[in-house]
Amino acid sequence: MRIVSLTLVLALGALQSSFGQSRSAAAQENLSTISALHDGNYMGLQKMESMTPEDKAAKWYYENTLLIRNSEALLDMVPFSIKHGKKEYSASDGGFMTYRGRFFQKGIQLFVSFRLFASDSIGIPIAECEPYSKIYIYPVTLVKDKIEIQGVLYESKQLDKEVLERLQLELSKEPMEYTGEHPFNKKYRTTPCQ
Could you report the per-residue pLDDT of 125-146, keeping only the tens digit for each? Predict the structure, then answer.
């Protein structure tokens, strides 16, 4: 009985020691996450609600393009559907959204803040505050050469030259902070969100 107890205590001690080391290594890895964030162009697929619920064969997604330069970011979301193995982009269904972003570190955790600044074919209810001023903050996980945000895994991707130039221009022109210059609806201006 003593031998079993001693073996169990030793095994638990080794397990705790092993867990402590792996947790410490993870903490050290997280401490360098902002420096481990690489500039680049990334692509990820995000499931979305069906825009054609009557068509059970069609599956809808956002094709998310994430551009990162010096911890500054641009996220461009384009809806598309897949039906019988064929990819189809929509001219108006699903809504097109573009967010300005910035990565930052708090403690050992990496985060990204996003602010919607352009949208097309999307309805946003009139709110108490300006929709384009609202900041969304999400934790970020770096997995090898991939970035995970809100369950979407972004992988490095070479972009078409015209698309890349358009996104780089938008990133350089649109500030992270809301200035009021481009509200969601010029007719129904509201105060910035707090």
Answer: 667 889 999 999 999 999 888 9
Cite the DSSP H helix spans in the chain: 2-31, 33-36, 161-173
The type of residue at 39 is D
Say whether 95 sits in a helix, a strand or coil: coil
Start-to-end Cα distance in the chain: 64
Token pair recorded at residue 174: 């649109």
DSSP sequence for 144-183: TTEEEETTEEEEE-PPPHHHHHHHHHHHHHS-SS--SSS-
- Report which of 182, 86, 185, 189 is spatially closest to residue 128, judged by C-alpha positions: 189
- What is the pTM (predicted TM-score) of this model? 0.78
Question: DSSP letter string over 25-41?
Answer: HHHHHHHTHHHHPPPEE
139 beta partners: 111
